[in-house]
Amino acid sequence: MLALDKAIEQVTTTLAYLACVIVACIFVNIVIDVSMRTLGFTPPSFTLSLVEYALLYFAMLCAPYLVRHKGHVTIEALVSVLPPAIQKFLAKLVYTASICVALLFAYYSLELFLEAWETQEPDVRGIDMPYWTLFLPMPICFLLVALEFARYLIGIDSYYSYDLGEVKDSV
User: Fold this and answer.
1) Kind and range of the H or E element at 59?
2) pTM as predicted
3) Total domain count for the chain?
4) What 3-state class would DSSP assign to 64?
């Protein structure tokens, strides 16, 4: 089990690094586009389409990493004043709901990916790309998100494990 957890961590970290590269590429594309417009040149017509795709890939690729490293926003004000048994129950309920939703998204995005793969429709924007490229990262990353929440559900870690006193002391 620990080896599987380590492998998933390596995959999610690699995807997060790839997301960082994508952000850098978005930055470069926007700077080139704006500079060309400022200098009176016609910028490439594909810049906006590539940035749109890149933002989708960025969001999907970093999602599992954010779940593992507790990077999503949570509000614990109500939960922190509840008895520990209820806190644990609510945490397990949230983990289970998150797993179900992530698997549901993974399933439907896989269906969309396979349909787009079979039809080979192009996504016609500033640049023609296969429509399936929109759905490519979704099933993979939603499955990884579900696995990350499963880690919390089985007790390898807790999403709500940090000391609230640390937050209060740093404010």
Assistant:
1) helix 47-68
2) 0.83
3) 1
4) helix
Measured distance CA(100)–CA(66) in Å, rounded: 18
Measured CA to CA, the distance from residue 61 to residue 57 in angstroms comes to 6
Q: Which residue has the tokens 């890939």?
A: 57
Over residues 77-91, the pLDDT tens digits come to: 777 777 888 888 888
Query: Please, are residues 61 and 137 in contact by the beta-carbon 8 Å criterion?
Result: yes
Other C-beta atoms lying within 10 Å of the C-beta of residue 140: 18
- Which of helix, strand or coil describes residue 127? coil
Q: Three-state DSSP class for 68? A: helix
Q: The tokens 């399936």 sit on which residue?
A: 132
Answer whether 70's CB lies under 8 Å from 152's CB. no
129 strand-pairing partners: 123
Q: Tokens at residue 32, please?
A: 């080139």
According to DSSP, residue 126 is labeled S
Condensed to tens digits (0 to 9), the pLDDT of residues 1-20 reads 788 889 999 999 999 999 99
Contacts of 84 (CB under 8 A, 6+ apart): none
Question: Which amino acid is located at 127 in the chain?
Answer: I
Segments forming the whole domain that contains residue 165: 2-170
Task: Give the residue from 29, 17, 98 showing the smallest Cα distance to 58.
Answer: 17
